[in-house]
Amino acid sequence: MIRCLPNPCACRASLIGVAQMPGERNGMLTIKRNIRAMVTLFLLSLFTIIVNSKVVAADELPASGSSAILLTQNVPNFWDPRSLMERPAETPERIEFLSTDDFPPFAFRDKSERLTGFHVDLARALCEELQSSCSLRVKAFEALADALEADEGNAVIAGLAKTPELAGQFSFTDPYLRMPGRFVTRLADGAGLDGLQFAGTEVSVERGSRHAAFLRARMPEVVLREYDTITEAREALRSGDVGAHFGDGMSLSFWLGGAFSEGCCMFVPGPWLEDAYFGNGLRIAVRQDDAVLLEALNYGLRRLQEKGVYSELYRRYFPISFF
């Protein structure tokens, strides 16, 4: 069940981990390189823990009970099943993607320095579906837009936000992933909650975040408890100081399965989506004069969903679903 409030949903593509607000270029994806390096190491560690723990959990957890809720595998579908899309009359012979190599689980180097990640495998699957030869060139995130404009590649697959500025410069595919806000609560308190029963509940958020702004505007009945950092906000829930926490669904999925949560908590059913706060999705960017490639990529994304390839990739890199 996807929550989308009636306010107009017409803003920015979500960044990976924190949603984009109007007027910001690309949120956390444009932070300084030294901070990105620390975030990368942290996320890669969490990703490794999650993947390893999932193998154990599949054998050890019961089929029912509160612990099993942690390992939900709901795969989102962003394509209308009623719409029809025929294979384009023309598809590109070769696609050179531009991406980064420092943001797991989307694109990163494994222990053998091999480039891997959700974006890497998605690009490969698109080329296979379109029967196009494929390559991927690694660039710093801040250089991707200029590289695409300079014809150093054909498409950017790195979570480049569809800001008004970039929308006037490039064309963007349909979204292939969105970053919802999610509530989490302690396992002992989660029975029967449906994501709508938080009136009067103390909910922790990061101070000044999009998630705090969303709750303040859309759920004034909750009691906001703002903390200076995400870590402090999550710890407030883990320790029982608040009844729930609201934050970015993707990063929370890794926290829930990682060591820092100590197995305390679970998602409350129902992701929340509203473009003005959480962005309008991750998309592939192409040059505006490349209509053939844009049509082909949209067709390819739809076919990967229909054939189950997208579901397999999502489960591989997001073992705890954030939908």
Give an overview in words.
The protein has helices at 33-60, 66-69, 118-130, 144-149, 164-167, 210-218, 230-238, 249-257, 275-278, 291-306, 309-317, and strands spanning 3-4, 94-99, 102-103, 107-109, 115-116, 133-138, 155-156, 170-172, 181-186, 202-206, 223-227, 244-248, 265-267, 272-273, 285-287. With 323 residues, the chain is α/β, with parallel strands linked by helices. The strands form 4 sheets. Strands 6-2-7-15-8 form a 5-stranded mixed sheet. A hairpin with a 5-residue loop joins strand 4 and strand 5. Helix 3 (118-130) packs antiparallel against helix 11 (309-317). The longest helix has 28 residues, at 33-60. It is elongated and about 55 Å long.
| Order of SSEs | EHHEEEEHEHEHEEEHEHEHEEHEHH
Round the mean pLDDT to the nearest integer and report it: 82
Please state how the strands of the largest beta sheet are arranged side by side.
Answer: 6-2-7-15-8
Radius of gyration over C-alpha positions, nearest whole angstrom: 20 Å
Number of strands: 15
